[in-house]
Amino acid sequence: MRKVTILILTALTLLAMTALFVYAEGAKNDFVGESKCKTCHKENHTSWSQTKHANAYNLLSDEEKKNEKCVGCHTTGTTAEGVLLEGVQCEACHGAGSAFKSAKIMSKKKWAADPEAHKKMAVEAGLIYPTTETCQNCHKKEGNPNFKPFNFEESKGKVHPAAE
Predict the structure, then answer these.
(1) Where are any strands of DSSP class E within the chain?
(2) What is the pLDDT of residues 54-100, one digit of tens each?
(3) Whose CA is closest to 57, among 38, 76, 40, 29?
(4) What distance in Å separates the CA atoms of residue 143 and residue 151, rounded to the nearest whole number?
C-alpha cells in the first residue's frame, strides 16, 4: 500500500510540475517588433518613427553598441528568432506583444463594442499601459552619462504624438 501511495504522489508531483512549466512557458510573451504594431496603429507608428525613441540605437557610438547597459535602453530586445529590435519600439513600453497582438484581443470593432473587457484581456495577455516607473527603467541617472531629469507627464505626447 505504501508503494502505491508513493507512486501516486510522485505521479501527481510530476503532473503538477509539468502543468506549472507549461503555464510558465505559455505566459511568456515574445517581442514581435514594431512592424506588427504598425499594421493596426499606423498613425501612432508614423509619429513614433520621427521621435528620438525610434532612432535611439543609432545614437550610440560603435563602442556603446558593445555595452549591454547602453544597448539595454536603446533597443527593445530580441524576437523569438533572435532578431535585435533596434530603437525604443512599442514593446519597450507596452510589453512583449506576441500574446496580445492577436485580432481576438486587438480588434477595433471588439474594443469599440466592449472597451473595458478588451482592455482587461489585453492587460492579462501582457499589454502594459506605461507609467512613470515604466519609463524610469531607462530614464534614470544610474549608468546614464547623458541623464536629463525626466518628467512623465511632460513626456507623454513625445513618444507617439498622434496617440489615439
Answers:
(1) 75-78, 84-86
(2) 999 999 999 999 999 899 999 999 999 999 999 999 999 999 999 99
(3) 76
(4) 18
CA dist., res. 36 & res. 98, Å (int): 10
Bridge partners of residue 75, in order along the sequence: 86
Query: For 31-98+130-159, CATH number?
Result: 1.10.1130.10
Domain residue extents for the chain: 1-28, 31-98+130-159
Report pLDDT digits (tens) over 120-140: 999 999 999 999 999 999 999
76 Cβ contact partners less than 8 Å away, ≥ 6 residues apart:
31, 33, 34, 85, 86, 87, 88, 89, 90, 91, 92
10 Å Cβ neighbour count for 100? 22
